[in-house]
């Protein structure tokens, strides 16, 4: 099939590799400099005679000169355009091919730009995974700092939520309380909800819920709606005391505090705190008493810091099977609250092997601080055939000297069982004997293993 041959970018690269100006190449080929410029801009095709001149003058193979960039550009562009960032753009294969064949310079520019974008995205992800200080303005980290600075306890919200819980109980339940406010609660099939678990229809004053939600989830979603409405002014007041680097941080905190309010409505402070002591922090027993899920009760346990009525302070962590931390709450100021949870020796990373079972573990940090941890898998979503369920692991940890108050520990056991040595994160853990280490710690020189290789991934210099 005969068609014009455009070799502009290849010709320009050849000229630059030879160290020639357009005028010098024009003199070599016995043509004008303006014609060389037209060839390089793909405004003129390369003729058979010009191919022979190039091959003869610069002692090149014709096949090397004449091989087109278009097909390679088309293939590389097609790969780039499969990036999810372009998913909503209609990009017919013919248009991609035309761009590559007719505008190789533009194609090369797009490929370079996407390459730079990909490298920057990877560097940013690595920077955020690096630990403290990696990105001080990142919204999730900023929201975690806000919650951690207040030990995940918000007195005005808790007091107001307790008042609401009393009103709701007197009204005969959350749905009846909302009905008195003119809001009707309805359960609808998933296809009608179109992917939403909860939606408020303002026009008809209806709170719509997915009818496959289990009882604890349904209760919590109704409480969350009440928190978003009846506690909205209180939440805004809490957030007003600080300015945030981005609107996203404020949005994340609004959602977190609404969930806090919902937990306080379902599990009112005074009643919950009494039950916690009576049941010795037995989470599953508390689930039955308050109609809440394991994760909801564990979350609420991190908030029991009312002045004069404090309970055992806990740290809470939730991760997925890949180890990604999706929730981190600190009610005690633990050192791994800011960036910890990545140590593979912590049982929270192993509970996926035995779903639904509670794993108990004594922990010791490199500084010598000791903690007691319980971890278990929790599931969400699902609710019907073909609807995927998401499994995560949650862990609660408290200081070792508080563990004797928990049903999970006997008095004799507290001082007898050897703790598992864990680190806040590999970058900050200097234990040289750890075989589970993934990266060397910051500030330590690595010894070569030319003559000796131990069981540990790295051997460190003494200083």
Automatic annotation (TrEMBL):
Q: Which Gene3D superfamilies match?
A: lambda repressor-like DNA-binding domains
Domain of life according to the entry: Bacteria
Record-level Gene Ontology MF annotations: DNA binding; DNA-binding transcription factor activity
Under SMART domains, the record lists: HTH_XRE
The record's keywords, sorted A to Z, are: DNA-binding, Transcription, Transcription regulation
DNA-binding is among the record's keywords = yes
HTH cro/C1-type domain sequence ranges:
11-65
Against SUPFAM superfamilies, the record matches this protein to:
lambda repressor-like DNA-binding domains
- Write down any Gene Ontology CC term: cytosol
Q: Which family does it belong to?
A: Belongs to the short-chain fatty acyl-CoA assimilation regulator (ScfR) family.
Can you name this protein? DUF2083 domain-containing protein
Give the species this sequence originates from: Novosphingobium aureum
Classification lineage: Bacteria, Pseudomonadati, Pseudomonadota, Alphaproteobacteria, Sphingomonadales
């Amino acid at each position: 099939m005969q068609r014009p041959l455009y070799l502009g970018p290849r010709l320009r690269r050849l000229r630059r590799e030879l160290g020639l100006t357009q005028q010098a190449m024009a003199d070599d080929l016995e043509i004008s400099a303006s014609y060389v410029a037209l060839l390089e801009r793909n405004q003129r095709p390369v003729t058979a005679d010009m191919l022979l001149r190039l091959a003869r003058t610069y002692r090149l193979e014709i096949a090397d000169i004449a091989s087109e960039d278009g097909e390679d550009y088309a293939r590389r562009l097609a790969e780039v355009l499969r990036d999810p960032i372009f998913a909503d753009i209609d990009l017919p294969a013919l248009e991609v091919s035309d761009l590559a064949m007719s505008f190789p310079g533009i194609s090369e520019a797009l490929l370079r730009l996407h390459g730079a974008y990909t490298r920057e995205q990877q560097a940013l992800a690595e920077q955020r995974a690096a630990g403290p200080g990696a990105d001080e303005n990142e919204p999730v980290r900023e929201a975690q700092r806000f919650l951690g600075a207040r030990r995940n306890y918000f007195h005005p919200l808790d007091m107001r939520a307790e008042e609401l819980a009393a009103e709701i109980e007197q009204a005969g339940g959350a749905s009846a309380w909302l009905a008195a406010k003119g809001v009707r609660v309805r359960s609808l099939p998933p296809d009608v909800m179109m992917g939403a678990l909860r939606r408020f229809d303002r026009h008809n004053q209806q709170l719509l819920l997915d009818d496959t939600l289990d009882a604890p989830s349904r209760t919590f979603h109704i409480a969350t709606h009440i928190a978003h409405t009846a506690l909205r002014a209180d939440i805004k007041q809490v957030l007003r005391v600080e300015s945030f680097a981005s609107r996203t941080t404020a949005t994340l905190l609004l959602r977190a505090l609404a969930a806090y309010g919902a937990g306080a409505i379902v599990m009112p402070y005074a009643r919950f705190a009494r039950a916690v002591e009576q049941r010795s922090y037995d989470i599953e027993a508390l689930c039955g008493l308050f109609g809440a899920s394991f994760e909801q009760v564990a979350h609420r346990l991190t908030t029991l810091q009312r002045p004069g009525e404090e309970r055992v302070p806990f740290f809470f962590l939730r991760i997925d099977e890949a180890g990604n931390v999706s929730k981190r709450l600190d009610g005690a100021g633990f050192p791994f609250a800011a960036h910890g949870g990545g140590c593979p020796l912590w049982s929270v990373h192993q509970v996926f092997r035995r779903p639904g079972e509670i794993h108990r573990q004594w922990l010791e940090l490199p500084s010598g601080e000791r903690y007691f941890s319980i971890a278990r898998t929790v599931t969400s979503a699902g609710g019907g055939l073909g609807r995927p369920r998401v499994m995560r692991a949650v862990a609660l940890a408290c200081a070792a000297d508080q563990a004797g108050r928990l049903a999970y520990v006997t008095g004799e056991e507290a001082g007898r069982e050897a703790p598992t040595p864990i680190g806040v994160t590999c970058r900050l853990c200097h234990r040289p004997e750890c075989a589970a280490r993934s990266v060397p710690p910051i500030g330590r020189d690595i010894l070569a293993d030319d003559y000796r290789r131990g069981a540990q991934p790295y051997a460190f210099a003494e200083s």
